[in-house]
Amino acid sequence: MKLTPMEVSGKKFRKKFRGFDGEEVSEFLEMVSTEMEDLVRQNRYFEEELGRKNSELNDFKSREQSLKDTLILAQKLAREMKNNMAKEAQVILSEAEMEAEKIVRQAHDRAMELDQEIRELRNQRLKMIEELRSILNTHTKLLEVEEESVKLKENQEDKVQRIPTSRAKGSE
Question: Left, alpha or beta for 148 (phi > 0: left; psi -120 to 50: alpha)?
Fold first, then answer.
């Protein structure tokens, strides 16, 4: 089930006897909503960035294919001209192959960089999710500790109220 920041900030809880502090829950939900908005915005940014990187990668692949097509054409021309200009054709072919290899190597290197960036972005997203989960767990534990503290204070107050008043007057 996907939650939106609006759903989190608008969530209302039923009130029960000695339930959570409504204001504190609202503040926490607002904080979670803000964090979710940031994560949603960041996720959109990463998706857009991934789209741009994929577009670049497709452009490089298209260039690579053009270079491969050009290389094949250069090889055909070299074979046709081999009888008349074997040495010149060999030089042209060698240069074209070196350039094609260079461009293919550059495209491959760029693709590897993009893949690494994508992995890093995914790792960052997972790290942020874990950090958010950790923050939520910490706040839950803090709420539990606060509840125990309140119960302990209430028990102490109950004990103080149960002390008979005659004892207090007799000791004077």
Answer: alpha
Q: Which of 118, 143, 101 lies closest to 50 in space, CA to CA?
A: 118
Q: 17 phi and psi, to 5 degrees? A: -60, 125
Amino acid 92 reads: I
- pTM for the model stands at 0.34
- AA letter at 157: E
Q: What is the CA radius of gyration of the chain?
A: 35
Q: What is the DSSP letter of 17?
A: T
List the pLDDT tens digit at each of the 172 positions of the chain. Answer: 577 777 777 777 777 777 777 788 888 888 888 888 899 999 999 999 999 999 999 999 999 999 999 999 888 877 787 767 777 767 788 899 999 999 999 999 999 998 999 999 999 999 999 999 999 999 999 999 999 999 999 888 888 887 766 555 555 5
Terminal-residue alpha carbon distance, the chain: 67
